[in-house]
Amino acid sequence: MELSKINGFGESTRKLFSEIGIETVEQFLEYYPYRYEFLSPSPILQHDEKVIQVINVVIESDAQVSYIRRNFNRLRFHAKFQNQLLKVSIFNRAFLKPNLKVGKEITLIGKYQEKTNQFIANDIKVNAILIPKIIPIYHLMKGIKNANIEKWMKTAITLPITIYDRIPLAFQELYQFIPKLEALKFLHFPKNAEEIKSAKLRFIYEELFEFMFQVLFLKETETSSNGLKRKFNKQLVYDFIDSLPFSLTHDQLEAIQDGLQDLESDKRMNRLLLGDVGSGKTIVASILMYANVLSGYQSVMMAPTEILATQHYLSLLKLFDHFSLHVELFVGSMKQSEKKKVLEKIETGQVDIVIGTHALLNDHVNFFNLGFVVTDEQHRFGVNQRKNLQNKGYRSDVLYLSATPIPRTYALTIYGDMDTSVIKTKPKGRKEIITQVKKESELKEVLKHVYEEIKNGHQIYVVAPLIEEGEMDELKDINLLKEKFTLAFRDKFKMDILHGKMKSKEKENVMKSFEIGETKLLISTTVIEVGVDVKNATMMIIFNAERFGLATLHQLRGRVGRNDLQSYCYLISNQDIERLHVLEESNDGFYISEKDFELRGQGDLFGVQQSGDMSFHLADLKRDYKILLQAKKDASSYLKSKDYLNSDYYLALTSKINFTN
Ligand code: ADP
Ligand code: MG
Fold first, then answer.
1. Which of 312, 399, 480, 521 is most exposed, with minimal Cβ within 10 Å?
2. 255 CA to middle of ligand 1, Å?
3. Does the residue 641 lie in any domain?
4. Closest CA to ligand 1's atom 4
């Protein structure tokens, strides 16, 4: 059901939600609170400055607003708690002023400072809370308040929605889970902590069951039928390897051997190629794509972003320059006429290798004879999407590339049934990236270093976490950063910015200029997180580093150190956060992920963009590991029973209904 069916859900709100992949009322209901506030007004005022307390007060004076800086204001007034007059202050709530009338009873949430007799609120409920209440807290977006979301949820749940329960009936009964609709109500409007707990358990199991079922299903359908048994001249493959400007590492060669064997045998390839950032997975995939072409079939490679797809395309053009292969790019932003031309060539077999994005999944994309499917950064895609691409071929072989730095235990549980090749070592001559955590007050030092690197002919990435000016003062918006760097360096060298909201053509131009070394310093959002490869870049500076998880930081850092030049990474953060120092210690993705798991659970294992297989809403691989194991067992027996053939599961898996979102 469309979101517009929710009262008060305007066009601009719809757009905001659409950007995070929420298009329907059903999906909106899966926008769960990330925490709850348990509010019950206290009858006494505690004098411990550290305690957050909830008190009901009566307003005694008109509220005054003072503007401290841009985007930063303070609201102050007097209020009476029982018989005690308090000074109350709260930051960035100037908009509440009209609601704060003398004599009104309100609820304050915050801390009391006895010394100054001041109550520093971090939230105010303009209507006093009289009975204990649980407030769901949602992640907010620009211009949307928590109260808005609460209101929309209340409407959404009353609409005639189609709720699709992904737990098969037998397991719903076995574990006596509460019905899904009820569980949704419990999560969004809980009456007590037990309701939240039982609802969560149900959803966590559901997420993990669905996920494991898909993994197992995919594996079974892929390997149950025979694959293509091909013949190709292996010598040509070795000649190609000899033509490379570098020699492959032992692990790369081994992965290639694994892949070649799969291609030659009539067993269907279903292989995961795991390797840390910068370990050289692309070249392995390219060589296998070449072998597949030699055997007379088309190859395709799907990447999660246009920037990455374009880059792969350009490097493949170069790689196969002397090997008379026809390589084409297919991405969403291409002109209609261009697309048509490429599609025709793909369909008539004039193209040997296609590189593209999700756009490849479109129904209009038909291959002449697809034999080999590579998915780069596989964890960024949903199982359906990968399956969909494979279905465009006939018994095609598949290879997944992933740097997913997932601790080994979890990787084995999840992917244990797949064939895996691992690249453990980086190409020869790579140096550890020297990493340092710095406070913003130490920026001068960093800037000096920036200038040295540029004078030495190298290039630099700067990463800012937000695209637009943040509401929070400290966030370094990309334009502010540009001003800052321009101020520091004037026009001594060329700088540029790159972010997700730019048009594809613009992005492409910016990337091109950086690739050819014209642009020396590139200020960017995390759009460069995945896969971008510019060898001459030797420094990565990440602002507000505390806002990122270790996995993302490691990915970002992996943009430098891509040849034998010494590279550097600065993590700028004013907060003293222990986990950031893990990156100073190590350049090893697996070690870092172990630490990340230790320190904060699953964290943001899969990057900023929460899409793809493992972007669970509620489940956490570490915390819920036992549930994962059970879900895997259940999913496996469900698959064996073949009961799914008579259920919506089958429809979902054959992509007739949208299942993953
Ligand atoms: P990732 O595994 O992160 O996808 P890439 O495939 O992008 O890494 O490889 C990183 C860089 O290393 C690329 O520029 C690639 O050309 C280069 N490279 C790959 N293998 C080797 C090698 N054996 N020796 C030297 N450079 C290599
Ligand atoms: Mg890569």
1. 480
2. 14
3. no
4. 281
Nearest atom (ligand 1) to Cα of 535: 14
Element counts in the chain: helices (H) and strands (E): 21, 21
pLDDT at 547: 81
Q: Which CATH number covers residue 418? A: 3.40.50.300
Residue 251 has pLDDT above 50, yes or no: yes
| Beta strands at 53-59 and 105-113: parallel, antiparallel or unpaired | antiparallel
Q: At what angle do helices 281-294 and 306-319 cross, to 10 degrees?
A: 60
Tokens standing for 572?
């700028």
Q: Is there a contact between 198 and 186 (Cβ–Cβ < 8 Å)?
A: yes
CA distance 8 to 26: 17
Of 305-309, 367-371, 570-574, where does mean pLDDT reach its minimum?
A: 305-309
User: Measured from the CB, is residue 285 less than 6 Å from ligand 1?
Assistant: no
Residue 241 burial (CB count, 10 A): 16
pLDDT band with cut points at 50, 70 and 90 for residue 476: low
Instruction: Give the Å distance between the CA of 281 and the centre of ligand 1.
Output: 7
Q: What is the model's pLDDT at position 610?
A: 40
456/579 same-domain check:
yes
pLDDT for 639 beyond 80: yes
| Residue 493 and residue 582 share a domain | yes
> What's the whole-model pTM score?
0.72
Rounded distance, CA 630 to CA 653, Å?
A: 21
Q: In which element (H, E) is residue 311 found?
A: helix 306-319
Q: How far is the CA of 402 from the centre of ligand 1 (A)?
A: 14
Q: State the total domains in the chain.
A: 3
Q: Assign 53 to helix, strand or coil.
A: strand
Owning domain of residue 50: 41-131
User: What angle, 0 to 180 degrees and rounded to 10, lies between the N-to-C axes of helices 146-158 and 180-188?
Assistant: 160
Structure tokens at 437: 């955590």
Q: What is the pLDDT of residues 13-70, one digit of tens each?
A: 888 888 777 889 998 998 999 899 888 899 999 999 988 899 999 999 999 999 988 8
Point out the ligand 1 atom lying closest to the alpha carbon of residue 249.
Answer: 23
Whether ligand 1 lies within 6 angstroms of the CB of 282 is answered as yes
Considering the domain architecture, whether residues 363 and 450 belong to the same structural domain is answered as no
Q: Whose CA is nearest to atom 26 of ligand 1?
A: 427
